[in-house]
Structure formats: structure tokens, C-alpha cells
Amino acid sequence: MSESPRAELRLAAETPHARDPEAVLRRLEWTVIRRLDGLLHGNYRTLFRGFGLDLADLREYQHHDDVRHIDWNVTARMQTPYVREYHEDRDVNAWFLLDVSPSVEFGSHAKTRSVSAEFVTVLARLLTRHGNRVGALLYGKHMDTVIPARTGRRHVLQILQRIGARPELGGNAPTNLEEFLRNAFQVMKRRSVVFVVSDFISTPGWEKPLALLAERHEIVAVRLYDRLEMEMPDLGLLVIQDAETGEQVFVDTHDRGFRRRFAEAAAAREEKLREAFAAAGVDALELATDDDLVDALMRFSDLRKRRSMLAAGGSLPAHLQAAP
Fold first, then answer.
1. Neighbour-count burial for 134-171, b at 16+ CB within 10 Å, e otherwise
2. Alpha helices per DSSP H over the chain
3. pLDDT tens digits along 110-146
4. Cβ–Cβ contacts within 10 Å for residue 60, how many?
């Protein structure tokens, strides 16, 4: 079986307009983006703090400068320490790398793919309404869709429509994120903000291409999950189906030992994921199927504040010192 089997749960039928991109976008503009405007006081760039940093100047090192900004080549040539200064590019070029493989059809509250689509739609609209360009790459059983980076509300609707129109895929092979990330590297030439939106249920080997992407781009790994993946409730006898391969196993969830082993395996996988993100040098945002999208985006804002403060050599305020 693939790395994290998921029980086959079916949700109630969606409302008739659920796949209508215009209706979905209007709902998100009223229920999410308006709330974010109030919380951010209209300053959407707070969400993207620290992205698009370009080298502005070199100057001699001063006390309290961040040693990570020392330019060692210039320092060796001038025989005195020099640091690099940056300015933040006002235009952000963004890409969404979307995993829409069979495992993202799972969800005990909402399907993971629906959560993914709404997250992407909100961020894309926040970016495009200020003139920034966004594009998307979609992976089902391979990278089958490339939506070039453009701006405007109609472009956001196109991305949303392409996500929503995809049929559910039958599971017969595990996801290969390594292949997806390597192919994405060839598509995205200009330095960009890249959101890798996935449950990261994949064959091994995606860590190296993720680190390679991070050398060229600003990467945020948006890890999608359902809380049932963390802890199995006592539901009696169940048939659990692997959404990726279709393999089924019969389990007794009354068995405390089984539930304990399930939770331990989930915790080990979580730790391995966090280590992989840290090793690749990418920010990670965890997004559950029952998360409030505004809360999740404010956690993302805090994540970027931490990153920019640490990069500048500053100390963190108390409310940012704990991980979200």
C-alpha cells in the first residue's frame, strides 16, 4: 500500500452551483477576502512579506547586521566584511503546483480537493487584484495541465474552473511527486513564489527536487490533511481502501492496540514531513479539511513575518515565537 491509506468516505452531494466558478469566487470574496481585508487593514502584502527580494546594494558590515547577509566573495576581495542589502519587488509572480491525485478526494468534513481549490482561489484573487500574475500546474497521474501565469479576475475563474471540472480519478498507481516537481522546474523559468499544495502522500524521492526548486524560487509547502489521518476513532469493523492504489484491508478499530499503532505511524510520518521541509529550506503551512480558511491564511501571514524578521536578524515578538 502507499504511505498513508485512507478510509473510503463519501460526503453528501454538493449543491448544484458548487462547481460554478463564478458562484464559488463570489462566495469566497464575501466570506473570506472581505474578512482578510479587515484583519490586514487592506494591506494584502502582509501575506507575502519577504517574497520577491532583489539585491539592492552592498555596504560595509556594521554591528548587529545579520551575518547571513555577508557577501564572502566581496569580503575576501576588499579585505573587510561587506553585507548585501535587499529591496522587496512590488510585483509578485506566483505559481500553484496542485496535487489533484486520487488521495485528495478524501475528507471527513470537506474533500481535500475542495479545500485546496478554495485556498488557491483566495490567494490567486488577492494577488491578481493588485496586478500580480499567477499560474498553475496540475498533477493527476502525471503533470497534465499547465495554466500560464496571467493576471485578472477572469484568469482566477479559469484556474478554479479547470480544478473543479476534473473528474475523480480511479486509484491504480501511487502519486509520484518527484516527477511532478522535476517537470515543474522546467516550466517555471522566472523566479516566483511557488505554493506546492499537496497531501504529500507519494512515492519516496520528492525531497531533493523540492530543495532544487527552493534554490530558484520562494517555496511554501501547503500540506493538506484530514484529522482522521492523525487518529483513528473507534468505529468497529471497517474496510479501509488506499485511495492511490485501490488496495483494501479489513481492520478492527475496536482494537486499542491497532488505534495506538495507527496514531504512532501518523506521528512518525508527520515528523518525517517536517524534517523534509526543513532540510529543503521551505516554509510549510498545514491546512486541515475542517480549518477556517481565514485562520489558516493568518497563520500563513505569521509564518512570513517570522521568516522576514529572522532574515533581517531581528527578534520575534512573543506571539510569533511558537510554531503555528
1. bbbbbbbbebeeebebebeeebbbebbbbbbebeebeb
2. 21-28, 34-40, 72-78, 112-128, 153-164, 177-187, 207-216, 256-280, 293-311
3. 678 889 999 999 999 999 988 899 999 999 888 999 9
4. 11
Taking the CA of residue 107 as centre, how many other CA atoms within 13 Å lie in the half-sphere pointing to its CB? 21
Alpha-carbon distance of 75 to 248, in angstroms, equals: 61
Q: Strands 283-288 and 218-225, how do they pair?
A: parallel
Whether residue 99 contacts residue 280, with contact meaning beta carbons closer than 8 Å, is answered with: no
What pairing do the DSSP bridges indicate for beta strands 133-139 and 93-99? parallel
Grid coordinates of 305 = 513575518
Beta-carbon contacts of residue 296 (< 8 Å; ≥ 6 apart): 119, 285, 287
Share of the chain above pLDDT 90, in %: 48
Query: Residue 61: which residues within 8 A CB-CB, separation 6 or more?
Result: 70, 75, 80, 81, 82, 83
Distance from the first to the final alpha carbon of the chain: 31
Question: Strand 53-60 to strand 143-150: parallel, antiparallel, or no bridges (unpaired)?
Answer: unpaired
**Polymer length in residues for the chain:** 324
Decide if pLDDT at 51 tops 70. no
pLDDT digits (tens, 9 = 90+) for 4-40: 444 333 333 343 334 689 999 999 999 999 998 888 7
Q: Which of these, 97, 112, 101, 103, lies nearest to 3 by C-alpha position?
A: 103
Q: What domains does the chain contain, in order, with CATH numbers?
A: 21-50+91-311 (3.40.50.410), 54-87 (no CATH)
Is the separation of the CB atoms in 199 and 223 below 8 Å? yes
Distance between CA atoms of residues 302 and 71, nearest Å: 28
CA 112 to chain centre: 12
